[in-house]
Amino acid sequence: xxxxxxxxxxxxxxKAKKKIVMVTAYDHPQAASADRAGVDVVLVGDSxxxxxxxxxxxxxxxxEDMLHHVKAVRRGVESALxxxxxxxxxxxxxxxxxxxxxxxxxxxxxxEAVKVEGGKKRIPAIRxxxxxxxxxxxxxxxxxxxxxxxxxxxxxxxxxGQEERLVEDALALEEAGVFAIVLECIPAAVAAHITRSxxxxxxxxxxxxxxxxxxxxxxxxxxxxxGPKHTxxxxxxxxxxxxxxxxxxxxxxxxxxRFPSAGExxx
Length: 267
Hints:
TIM Barrel; 2 domains; eight-stranded parallel barrel; 8 strands; about 15% strand
């Protein structure tokens, strides 16, 4: 049965009715695979800085990097809602530049929504994007673009006063008009409190089971990531192992003159 196109109003209506499934994707094959699996949202995350480009953080990711990958993902997505991360400095300098950058994702790359990190301080940027008729998803908790302020990647919401500030930020984002909010690396009880406090869906990553949906990075859930695995990641495959076995098998066959064999060349 063909899945209908996921829209922003439809996604908002799923709160407390059906768990929302979101995954990242960075190229056409990944996007087509995610879409074929029936996920609700495909996010082209600025995490491509770490996952694809080998950067230590998301900060060096540019608009041009993001546009390149969103265009590729667009060609693989038919049913899912396609969302693009607003990278660092794309919405920090001025409102006109913010709207221009968000508009490029829609006009040039085919995105249907954008995601913006941060709480109350980002309200002017979010409202300006919404005024341009571009849907916005918020992002609270561990916001990777704030790594130098945070000091390191760590759980947010445990220190005194943090829970209250997160709830206040979530309510401010809802009032501004976001259609959903990502909650990253927040204690489960805090994420549950936020989820109950807002009328828009929450999408968790390392934020417990009571969020309205969950998101994982494509490479993490397929066991294809480099380096240590986050405790909140569940790998559903071991692509790193399979890829290693395939490449070493090819290497051995070439060195032992087992490849190519009869029928694997042109006469």
